[in-house]
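Trying the structure run again after the queue cleared.
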Amino acid sequence: MKRTVLSFLAVLSLASLFVGCAGAPSTERVSWEIQNRFPEARFQREEHFHLGRVSMSLLRGFVRMAPGKVDGQAFLNQIHRIEVSSYKVSSLPDLDGLQSETRFESQLAQAGWSMAVRTRDEGERTWMFVRGGKNGGLRGLFIVTLEQDELTLVSIDGRLDQALAEAIAARPKDAIRKVKGESEETHPETPAG
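Done. Tokens:
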């Protein structure tokens, strides 16, 4: 019995290595790659959190046990993994040196990710990558924002197209206001009477 459990755990850990290869690189790896490309760049991690499949399952379980309806529960059900890292930039060369493709961009492209947005504002660079699923839905989102004083990386995996639809369905009026760029103060909710 003990041997069977050990064999199962070995196969499970080996499988998790291959699953990780198909996904996004870790936020730590991307920050290291940027720092490696520019040896004079220095990043000091300020915040980091990672919720994997097990953590997300536990979180969904706690939300289900909460009395009453919990805002965002349907959205949460569609998310499988979240990783967010924030770094303080203590040294950074001129961002114009980031004009050519970075290694993390080519690694993401090889793993089936597509660049959705790349911005080059003064003192800031942003990359947003998306990955589709077999059915054509949105399965992954990876955002990198590099400013003179902060590097922020966000990686989300799940059924993101369905999560977005759930979020809009939960509060359609709020979604319309956000798309129009209006604030809630512009159109306060009128109580039903």
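Strands lie at 42-51, 79-91, 113-121, 124-132, 138-147, 150-158. Worth checking whether this holds up in the mutant runs.
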